[in-house]
Amino acid sequence: MRFLALYLFKRFSYTVGVLFAVSLIVFGVTQAMPGTVAHTILGNLANEEAVKAINEQLGLNRPLYIQYLDWIGGVLTGDWGQSFTSRQQVSSMVLPRLVRSAELAVIAFLQIGFFGIVLGTIAAVKRNTFIDSLAGGVSYIGVSVPEFVTSLVLIALLAQGQWEILPQSGYVPRSEGFIPWLSHLILPSIAAALLGISHVMRQTRSGMVEALQSEYVRTARLKGMSETKVIVKHALRNGLLESITVLALSMGWLIGSLVVIEEVFAYPGLGRLIILSINAQDIPVVQIGILIIATVYSIGNLCADILYSVMDPRIDYE
Amino acid sequence: MTTSRRRLLKTLSAGTLIGLAGCNSTSDQPADQTTTGSTTDGTGTNTDAGDTQKHLTVSTSEASTTLHPIRVGNSTIPDAFVRQWTYSKLTWLDHNLEPNPDLATTWSANEDATAWEFELRDDATFNHDGSAVLAEDVKATLDTIYAEGQQYSGKNALGPIDSVEIINDHAVQINLSAPDASLPRKLGTPPGNIVAKSALENNFEELNNSTFGSGAFKLDEYVVGDHTTVSAVDDYYMTDDAGNTLPYLDTVTVSTYPEVSTEVSALKQGTTDILNRVDPTYWQELKAYDGVETQQMTGGYYHPFEMRVTQEPFDDIHVRRAVKFAIDKEQILSIVGNGLGTLGQDTGIGPAHSYFAEIEDEFGTTADIDAARAELEKAGLADGFTVDTPIYCPAEGTPATGETAVLVKEQLAQIGIQTSIQETTWGRFLSEYWTDSSDTPIVVNSIAMRPITDQMLYFVGHSEGSINKEMLPESVQPEFDDTLMAATSTTDEAERQELLTRCQEILHQQSGYVVPFFTARLTAAQNRVENYNVEPTGNSLPIQSVDVSSSAE
């Protein structure tokens, strides 16, 4: 247990270090972004004097290291600053959108988990049959087709024309009804989940094939256990080891891929806000938004590492 | 698996479940919803206030950035709409761009139009605190816009205002540094929002995300980049012809749809009621769609190809003339505008403007390659030339500029002018490639219509004009400036037309400006929307008399 704790502490420290490095990169990249927010605010009236005045007002004329320390100090103490363009508190802009993106990500994640594992298991059990080939084909399409294409196809099929069964855009808060809320999440979550389902399905199939060919499964069959019990009680537990880690990693992918999906579905999430803020040179919002995505990704990786190390008794922490 | 690992797994699983449960139990209402204004179920009907509430949703592809009524420099359409609905001006422009009384009930000028007196209504109140709108608020607003050292777009747009005098609580006199016969019209344009004096003094930065106006609506919810909702005030001062209090609507939402196809679907599904600017590629589809009414009129929005006349070789009039001969405007209109629009005359003034003049167009609307080559020969460049810097265009925000650039590039290649294209974002375009000191001889830009002819000509051609990036040579700039100022000063309509026509001729003949076409003003609305009168700029939507038929949906 001591070694496990030490191992977890090391992984956590590594994650913190990664996030610190990410903060430096994010800060550096946003400073290097061409153009200035002053031009966004002033438009075509941006002469040198006016730009200078705006930069001074926003503190952009200070040395970079001061700006960074000021910013990172604020991030750690919960003061995320103000948007340069709307002057709203960044936290009040980002947090609600993060919640909405998280709602979308969770629904997509549940789909990835359920369909990825179920379809991967079926493909493994029906290995080398038509069903296996079909599953393989679908997974190739899932990893090959970009999300914006998937999104537009889903809209065309299920939200337009004769089959207008789902809303094609927007968001309704849960307080306005569970069904309206969920119905607005279905199409974007499917678009977000397809890639993850494909990855998890392939990983699950691979793991299950190996598990189903193992000695202990053969022993279980010889003992007279039903095939269902063999699959669920023995093969699945071991076959899912790597799928679980892929699942954990998919949380990070999801938050990142939502950028495109939120644009297509006009979903008011964090991804859309980041795009808008990049176009408007709204640096405080861009910095926080990207840092949040990086944090989710890092946490996903950390969870994957922890889960794998805990679930696989063959791993020696020493 | 050892016992400790099993225990750890159970602990982690339990912790995750508790965490998820905790997230789910937090407020459903995101923190950026600042009021209890209700949302709709997509039918336009307020879902929790009974059948009598009237709601309208307007869609746009642009995202809101700020509601500031003074800093309107780079305003987007949703911001412009919300300001129009929540603030009042001294006058308001109807769909014919004519000024109507708003906060000012009457106005008059002295003989040479250098001083204007405005009588203010006595029943207008600010929505945030119920205080009366007084002359001091008008003075404070205009003083703020024209403050020394500040560079607000109102300074250019509202005219040569020198000072504002308070005559009494409900009367002001606006003194001008030069005669301006169209001041009442200019005060009805977007920068003319009248803001509470107390807000200007104490809440200047809050104006970015709150409203302190006396308009027909007050701000309910402002979600930057997504949607804004306003609700009608109870004591608005305007009435209709029958004496009924305006507005008819109870709530209005302007929503952003970044993806055009999604925006069109939203209108067809009834999620939105008005699609402010229809993309030409979806025009026929919407025209044929039952339940949606489309409107088309001449617009004033355009994508000019600009040549800086101070940079070689475009400083040579013959090179500019060669380019103008070579550019096939009809082809550009057909491809970029889908054939919907009006051909331009290289002036920035289109048929939608009141003083538009059909001037003699020696360059024609199709390419005249022989004439173009003859001009190049006069310039000593018979074999053509290569432009070292590309055609910059903000195509990442406005794809039509990229499409125009591609066509212009190919058309110029026919006379031996070789160039390339560099697409960029609006931010970078404004900050690097389209500044007063940029070393970029050619760009394709995107210019919104200003409703007043002399105002538009000022922006485009005057030496102090904010859009004039070295478009006129020094040899004609003084003539243009003087002619425009004379036109602005005169109250004689015939003289004004003559002078403004001359300005248009100078731009057509001498400038580095090529305006292929003006986009048609295309809009669509649900059949249930009533009194939706379209105006040509696309940046204005007078909402006070718009109505929706009762919700039987």
Describe the global form of chain A: globular
Mean pLDDT of chain A: 84
Percentage of residues in helical conformation of chain A: over 70%
Number of helices of chain B: 16
Strand coverage percent of chain A: under 5%
Question: Can you summarize the main beta sheet of chain B?
Answer: 8 strands, mixed
Beta strand count of chain A: 0
- Biggest β-sheet strands, sense, barrel of chain A: none
Low-pLDDT ranges of chain A: none
Keywords:
heterodimer; A: 318 residues; mainly alpha; globular; B: 553 residues; alpha+beta; eight-stranded mixed β-sheet; four-stranded antiparallel β-sheet; 16 helices
Notes on the protein architecture:
The complex is a heterodimer of chains A (318) and B (553). Chain A has 13 helices and no strands. Chain A is mostly helical. The model of chain A has no long low-confidence stretch (mean pLDDT 84). The relative contact order of chain B is 0.15. At the A-B interface, α2, α3, α5, α12 and α13 of A face α1, α7 and α13 of B.
Outline of this structure?
The complex is a heterodimer of chains A (318) and B (553). With 318 residues, chain A is mostly helical.
Question: What topology does this entry show?
Answer:
The complex is a heterodimer of chains A (318) and B (553).
Chain A: H1 2-32, H2 37-42, H3 48-57, H4 64-77, H5 90-125, H6 130-144, H7 147-158, H8 178-212, H9 215-222, H10 227-239, H11 241-264, H12 270-279, H13 283-311
Helix pairs in contact in A: 1-13, 5-6, 5-8, 5-11, 6-8, 7-8, 7-11, 8-10, 8-11, 9-10, 11-12, 11-13, 12-13
Chain B: H1 3-25, E1 55-60, H2 77-86, E2 91-93, E3 99-101, E4 104-109, E5 115-120, H3 135-145, H4 153-157, E6 161-168, E7 171-176, H5 183-186, H6 197-202, E8 217-223, E9 227-232, E10 251-256, H7 260-269, E11 274-275, H8 283-287, E12 292-302, E13 305-307, H9 317-326, H10 329-336, E14 341-343, H11 369-378, E15 385-386, E16 391-393, H12 399-413, E17 417-418, E18 421-423, H13 426-433, E19 442-444, H14 453-461, H15 477-489, H16 493-510, E20 513-514, E21 517-526, E22 529-530, E23 547-548
Parallel strand pairs in B: 1-10, 1-11, 15-17, 16-18
Antiparallel strand pairs in B: 2-3, 4-5, 5-7, 6-7, 8-9, 9-10, 11-21, 12-21, 13-19, 13-20, 14-21, 22-23
Helix pairs in contact in B: 9-11, 10-12, 14-15, 14-16, 15-16
